[in-house]
Amino acid sequence: MASVTKSAEILAEKPKELAALRAEITESRRKASELASEYYRRIERKNPQLNAFLSLTRERALAQAARIDALTARGDPLPLLAGIPFAIKDVLVMRGAASTAGSKILQGYRPPYDATVVTRLESAGAILLGKTNCDEFAMGSSNENSAYGPVRNPWDTERVPGGSSGGSAAAVAANLAVAALGTDTGGSIRQPASFCGVVGVMPTYGRVSRYGLIAFASSLDRIGPFAGNVRDAATVLSVIAGHDPCDATSLRAPVEDYAAASDQPAEGLRIGVPGEYFAEGLDDEVRAAVERGIAALRAAGCTVKPVHLPHTRYAVPTYYLIATAEASANLARFDGVRYGYRSPRSETLSAMYSHSRDEGFGAEVKRRILLGTYALSAGYYEAYYRKAQQVRRILADEFLRAFAQVDAIVTPTSPVPAFKLGEKTDDPLSMYLADIYTVTASLAGICGVSVPCGTTRAGLPVGMQVLATHLGESTAFRVARAVEAAGI
Ligand code: GLN
What we know:
Elements: H1 2-11, H2 18-26, H3 32-50, E1 53-56, H4 58-74, E2 85-89, H5 116-123, E3 127-132, H6 166-173, E4 179-184, H7 190-196, E5 199-202, E6 222-227, H8 230-240, H9 258-263, E7 270-274, H10 284-299, E8 303-307, H11 315-330, H12 349-360, H13 363-376, H14 382-403, E9 408-412, H15 428-433, H16 439-444, E10 447-455, E11 461-468, H17 473-486
Parallel strand pairs: 2-3, 2-4, 7-8, 7-9
Antiparallel strand pairs: 1-3, 4-6, 5-6, 5-10, 9-11, 10-11
Helix pairs in contact: 3-4, 6-7, 10-17, 11-13, 11-14
């Protein structure tokens, strides 16, 4: 009971819409510096319960707010995100600011540069309040793998916020930030968005530069926004998207005005519903909520038809082979020499490497390095890693065939609503299996949005996942907006 009372208080203040806040600032009804201070006061009040922020970047945020106030005072035109308070997942680097990736091994690491998304947000006038908690190196679905303690779900503080970007999702849900950035490798934006009742966007692979992202699995990692509504998430994406010479995988495709696209009615769009995503293991209340969402799309003038994605059942093993293989390579750089933690037990060089890694990494990260190294080792490479790459291609082709018939595909984001803290920590396999609806789109490189779609009887949020093809973000936003407008 206590937790329910606490949650109501935590959720009491909803963030204002981005455009409304911006108007208050541009029309001098409110100072950016006052708004930032108001957010810091709220963080001080609520963060001890939620553990959503790991560190605050107050000096930098207030200096940026003062710049915005100076522009307003001079009557200069203001950029798109002028004065908007943001939270940044702690896998994204900010110059001189603690960047831990939720790991003890990066304690004390202060990067010498800014991630491209950080530069873009600040150039657009955003105020970056601080860094948010996450599963260690973004590996997890509940935020319980953070070396700095779990984040609590603002809707029920006895439950997980989802992961790995749980701190960013919780921060937006509790109005500790108007919008936030997270990363999604196999669901880490979409799933916490669904657990916390906010909008989360996984852009197409390459749509947003990964420069300055502490890598987990480089062929899967995406950076994307969380916001309180679809239009705000679309606005943020239009700021962070676009080619970047510092990331060779970033796409040269032009950036659309996603907010304007999200204003377009969904009428006439063809929506695919894959039976494979509504099978065994799906919670009844989640199914009912998503079915109400589908009915709302029909009512908005969409045509709804079945599509088939028959290899979906291979997605979880494929993902956990590829992601761990890439992680084992990416995490080799944390050796006690170049970054962060070094074990004091360092009699020899090789003892220093192994003690630093043993003491610096948590259990889940070690499990994945072992799995990934095994999948890549001589003799097993063909059976595991190469096979997984072949299945990945089949899964991607299957999506592309479906998108020849429909404009978007809708599914539940997660088979269950937010679960209790500790419920799955002893059973990593059940934690992996819960990623069933998000990992396939990650492997295929396509884009997706999780949009709130009602609540369970116990009052927990449910998310609908809207998938669209490569660079189909505008379509995904239109569909998500129609679900949001139905107010399910
Ligand atoms: N839950 C998935 C995992 O543990 C996805 C994580 C992510 O997207 N970063 O790998």
